[in-house]
Amino acid sequence: MGSTILLREIKKIYKVGPIFDDVVKSVDFVVEEGKKALICGEDRTSRAALMRILGLIEAPTAGEVYIDDSNMTDLSYEKMCAVRNMTFGYVSDLLPLIGSMKVINNVQLPLNIRGDMTREEVQARALESLEYVGAKDLANIFPARLGEEDVRRVCLARAIVGLPSVLWVDDIWLAQDQMEQKRFLENLFQICDEVGVTLVMSSEKPLAGISFDSVVFIRNGKLAYH
Amino acid sequence: MDILKRIFKKAESVEPSSPDPMEGVPPGLFQQESEPRPEPRVGLGKKKNRSIPLHPFVPAISFSIGVACLVALGALTVLAKMEAERRIQTSEDEMITISYPEERKGTQLMYDDIAQIPLKVRGLKWISPVFRMSGVMEWSEKSHEVAIAGVTSDMFKINKLQASHGRVLRELDMNMNFCVLGVNAYEIIGENTTVPKPGSTVLINGVPFTVLGILEKAQGLHSSFVDNLVLIHLKTMERHMDARSEGFLQAMTFHGVRTGPVAYGIANELKNQLWDTPVSLIHGDAMKDQLNTQIKANMVSLGVAGAISLLLGVVGMVSALISQVNRRKAELVVRSLYGSNGMELYGRYGMEGFAWGFAASVAGLAGGVVITDMASQYIGWPFMFPYDIMPLAAFFTFGSIVLFTVFPAIRASQIDLAGYLRSADEFRGV
Questions:
Q1: How many domains does chain A have?
Q2: Percent above pLDDT 90 for chain A
Q3: N or C: which end of chain B has fewer CB within 10 A?
Q4: For residue A52, pLDDT beyond 70
Q5: Structural domain boundaries enclosing A165
Q6: How far apart (Å, rounded) are the C-alpha atoms in residues B144 and B322?
Q7: What value of ipTM does the predicted structure carry?
Q8: pTM of this prediction?
Q9: What CATH number does residue A36 fall under?
């Protein structure tokens, strides 16, 4: 089951020396349970900041973040870690696979951190997850031997292995051709539909031929089009 | 959902996007602003990482060597003490005597140099060198080949030698031409003629000497050699006999209330330096310095090597582990993102550092035993490793591990997740 994410009057200000940089200016945004949302905009700083706030990676300067009616803004550090583990699956090219671990171990990582399953259960779930993204045969090799598309699939398997309610997908196709994008997104959407997970994705521009439930544009730190 | 609508009235339900994503987008939305916002410089995204990657294996070896050297140093110190005690217990009257040397010419040993040795050794009362040469003694118009020994007055005390007639040499006699005859020498010289009585004058290598006394027959194993000698004071020998070019140092005896390992070390070192290795000249201050340098050289070099290696090892391990943390920042971020909190990261990286340190420590402690064994064989001591020092060594070793484990682990646990992603994102945007 997916989660509903609500951002209420979110502001984010970075202070760099004497400069105060308002990267997110009073943004209100909601992604309903099981829906697919795309955040676009050429303003990379604002877009990335909004995504980080939305993914509970960074706290907003002001405003509130709700996930399934629960206010996440004032959660303690430990609870925030637990919520991230239980609720989110993260896919980003800034979050690479760990090179010293085999693919299967990489995929097991969220479950190992969660620590509520036996080793056999974790392994079975990881294999299942890899099979789901069509990468089961890659389980016992190291990430250095993977191609770009395989890495992306394994990252996706790592994101969904913990059965998250929100998939958080950052700009992952910076150097990808459109066909490959489309193929990946079709797989992603299929997974979201089958599992019922909420999808939040960011991109510089809207994606041709891909239909999201919601597309928002961010410009100068504000939602310019919703 | 009611609560959502209550809290967030502005939020609208999501509408499906059109097949053409750009349709309906306000014109100019993706055009560049007329005055672009200054690029914020956040984090370290544009900094070049100039650190040299250092694998923990290299400093771990240094750490092992350091531990091994220091363990060996401690063990050898204990062994030296044990060995000295063993020798003291087995020797008569806490006496250490260097074994008889091979004949060796060219040894230069001055009386003043000898006099410096007791000043250098705590607890050492007397030192007695026996400098031997051959010569001719003339008595009653007859000449005899004799063995002449230059000694100090300590020699008589140490060997408990007493005169059967007359008296033995005293320190004040150094400026006079006095001699004392061993019992065998006395009999040989007096064979078939009258023997030289105390007070009579004999010629030794042409120099007139007054006979002070005749020694009793020596009883001890170490002192029986004096029976065959004509004994004169070492200072007198230096003055008249030009012995240094023809004689050799026969024996050197130390005697002290508490001789200890240092005296034994000095004795050994002198033996090595004066008899086994050619030494052209040793004089007062030079000898003092040389004693300081040479006698303690092995121990000090072992200690210095150990200390430097240990220091390099600890500093290197800290650097290497921090370097590992920096290189594995992406891994830390992934772990942190998926819910690892600071304590888990601290524990994980602390354990990694501890594992390296533990392996290095065990290797170092074992290496210390091996070095001690080798050093014992080299010196000639029986190997008996004092395992009593191991708990102390392990305590300090594991203390060092804690030192180089804590800081990198703290660095790992304090990873700034948002900062890393932000700076990486800025860097990606360039």
A1: 1
A2: 18
A3: C
A4: yes
A5: 5-225
A6: 82
A7: 0.88
A8: 0.57
A9: 3.40.50.300
